[in-house]
Amino acid sequence: MSLPHPRLRFAAPEDDEALAHLDRETWSTLHAVVPRARQPYPAFFNDRFGPRDHVVATLDDRIVGYVRLGRPTALAANAHVRQIQGLAVADGARGHGVGRLLVRTAIAEARRQGARRISLRVLGHNTPARRLYESEGFVVEGVLPEEFLLDGAYVDDVLMGQAL
Ligand SMILES: CC(C)(COP(=O)(O)OP(=O)(O)OC[C@H]1O[C@@H](n2cnc3c(N)ncnc32)[C@H](O)[C@@H]1OP(=O)(O)O)[C@@H](O)C(=O)NCCC(=O)NCCS
After folding, report:
1. Mean pLDDT across the stretch 13-30?
2. For the sheet containing 7-10, what is the strand order?
3. Residue-level pLDDT at 44
4. 10 Å Cβ neighbour count for 116?
5. Atom in ligand 1 nearest the alpha carbon of residue 89
6. How confident is the model at residue 4 (pLDDT cuts 50, 70, 90)?
7. Which ligand 1 atom is the nearest neighbour of the CA of 120?
8. Distance from the CA of 6 to the center of ligand 1, in angstroms?
9. What pLDDT band is residue 89 in, cutting at 50, 70 and 90?
10. What is the rounded average pLDDT for all residues in the chain?
């Protein structure tokens, strides 16, 4: 069954709880390197990442996914690069193109901001995300072998990027 077309918009301050909830619901060691959140739950937005650093996908006004686009560092010498620093789609909305739409939007937004390159980091065992990124033009530019120990297994951190 196909989903209705998702709508895309920048996040707003009022989205904090819905986004924090989505992050908790989608948490897994397939993509997360931080432990599962515990109460009291932290806010989603913080000093580093505010609403305008996120594009959300909604279905019937409900947030079903988001992408976070930021700068890899605050250095002026690094200002021409943007990085996808978060991507998640609600379980029930997966497999219908929402993730692809969000990645495409992040690429377009990075280009609109004048960036020359876009990069990201993805865990080696995260096959769904790696397939998605590859099919949207990202290539593997480096691998940090066994960078994380998750659930008792060492996992590579894969660096991907593309020119804009
Ligand atoms: C990765 C994720 C965002 C994909 O979202 P989605 O909305 O299901 O993705 P789409 O429906 O747009 O699928 C796009 C492509 O991703 C790949 N993909 C998605 N799910 C897949 C799966 N289970 N296995 C293999 N490839 C998969 C396919 O290449 C797919 O293209 P296709 O439909 O033409 O085969 C989603 O699985 C998710 O939220 N995962 C947990 C969080 C995460 O891993 N984030 C990335 C952190 S780096």
Report:
1. 97
2. 7-10, 54-59, 62-70, 81-89, 117-123, 153-163, 139-150
3. 97
4. 12
5. 39
6. confident
7. 48
8. 16
9. very high
10. 97
Q: In sequence order, which residues have a C-beta less than 8 Å from that of residue 31 and are 6 or more positions away?
A: 88, 122, 123, 126, 129
Nearest to 146 by CA among 120, 123, 119, 130: 123
Measure the CA–CA gap between 100 and 129, rounded to whole angstroms. 10
How far is ligand 1, taken at its centre, from the CA of residue 152, in Å? Answer: 24
pLDDT of residue 108: 98
Model pLDDT, residue 1: 63
- Name the residue at shortest CA distance from atom 33 of ligand 1: 95
On the question of pLDDT at 13 being above 80, the answer is: yes
pLDDT tens-digit map of 108-123: 999 999 999 999 999 9
Report CA(76)–ligand 1 centroid distance (Å): 33
Contact 69, 120 (CB under 8 A): no
Any bridge partners for residue 151, and if so which? none
Atom number in ligand 1 closest to CA 84: 48
Atom number of ligand 1 nearest to Cα 96 = 11
Ligand 1 site, CB within 6 A: 26, 30-31, 87-89, 94-100, 122, 126-129, 131-132, 135
